[in-house]
Structure formats: structure tokens, C-alpha cells
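Now for a typical sample entry:
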Amino acid sequence: MAKDIKIAAIGGGTGLPVLLRGLKHYTGDITAIVTVADDGGSSGKLTESTGMLPPGDFRNNIAALSESEELFQLLLQYRFGDKEGLGGHAFGNLLITAMSAIYGSFEDGILNTSRVLAVRGRVLPSTLEAVTLCAEVAANEPAVAGTDLRHVRGESNLSQTHGRIRRLSLDPVQARAFPGAIEAILRADLIVAGPGSFFTSTMPNLIVEGIRAALLAAKAPKVFVANILNQEGETDGFTLVDYLQCLDRHGLGMFTHVVVNNRRLTSGNWPNLEWIQGWAKEGHIDAQCVEADLIDDQVPWRHDARKLARTVMAMVDA
């Protein structure tokens, strides 16, 4: 195990934990930098009722990095049913909420939840400010400048847009990056963004101004991990180049490597999967494309944790 390799991994609560479960076998110095733009489900309810930041994505990443007994990890992810009077809340969300109240702040709540669960590494917010994700959505593609644009507010509304998301922003625009997240990026030997919902998990971190500035200043390899599939309602019809052009449009063209799956299952069991298409020379962007078999054979729309971690770790001093 390369214990001295420092990794900053950026994302949300679904794709990023897969990467973390693989990376923790290589190093103990991992910082997960997680979005606070989630406004749906249990997290949204807790934010509305308590005013704290949404805990759900943090819960998932804490569980991924935890080295505690499996029973504790199952407990963290346990979700109460409606008949139990807790309205679909995950136990881990309630634990983080309680820890935040006991220790007086969200960041200390995350820190102490991580200690209880014996987390290998750290889980940090990209910002401590309550932000709303905003998007300009084109009715068609290509969009005609100045026409056919709708403005959508709220992370949970973006997948209902039925158009092509052209630009993202945060409200407030000048949300300050969490200092620990900036430090983790600047000291890292490897920086990884994704996988995960592109517009609602990965990008909300990257467009925090201090995060973007730290990425530009950082000397480490910067790896963007493409998803296995496009996401219905967010990235329908996207090619790999579309993702990279979107990053570039948001001032995020600093990625040195792009990791993409090159294996596609053709079994009749999976007839409607929209695989992300790989590199297209006509859309070349200045980043090294790394293609590999990354799929989980049992759940082919997700990455395999060990395959992905092995591929990403090859970027260190590559």
C-alpha cells in the first residue's frame, strides 16, 4: 500500500463512493470533497427542518471509506420506512444531524461521525455555504444564442428539465470554498473528479470559485472519470467530447487525463443502456484519454471499484 500518496477525490453520493471503496486499498491519505447542493429526499427534508447542510452524500462517502465492522456500515445506510414514523430518513443522515447539533457545526458533525465509523481518510464539503444549483437549459441543441433558454433552480429539478443543460451556476455565485478542501487539492499527488451525476454531483463542486482556482493552481495530475452511461434527463445523447467541452465552457479545461470505459455489454438483458461514446478525434481536447474495461459485471451501468481505482492510480507519476 502506497501510504504516502495523497488523493483528492471530488464528487457526490453515488459514483464517488465506488471510487473511494477501491482507492482505500492503495492509500490512507484520501480526501473526499463532496457537494452540498443536494436538495431532495431525506437530505432535503433535514435541510428544510434544521437549516443544516444536506447530509446524504456525506453519509454515502463516509460509509465507503469506513473500516468499521460491516454491521455499523449497514446501520449507517439503514433507511426507515414510512410506517416507522421517520419518513424515509436514513439512519446515517440522522446521525450526522445529531453530531452536528452536539458539536455545534456541520463540519465537526462530519468529522466526529467519521471518527465513530473509523473512516480511512477525510470527507469534506466543497463549501459550507447553503447553495442552490441553477442552470440555463436549451430547448434544443445546438441552442440559438439568446433564445429558447429556460432557467431552472434546484438540484432535484435538473433531471426534469427535458432539454440540454448549457450552463451551471451557484446561488450565491461567490460561495466560498471550504479551506480544507482547497488545501487538500493543492497538496494532492492525484486529483480525481467523478464518477457520478455530471451536472448535479460533480460539477456543483467544480464551479465553486475557490475549488476551480485550486484546481488551476495544483501541480498534480487531474483526472476526470466519465460515467459508464449517460444519465436520462441530464446528459442524454452526450459523447465524451460533449462532457469535456462542457467542462471547458465552465473554465474547467485543466484536466490532464480522462478515464472512460471501453467495454459495452451487448446482452439482451441490457437492451436500452446508453453507453457513453469514447474519444472522437474531430472533437479533440488537450487531455490524455485512458480507456479500460471498468464495468461491474453484475451491475453494468456502474463502475467496478477495484478496476477503476487500479486505472486511476496508474496516473500517479505516469
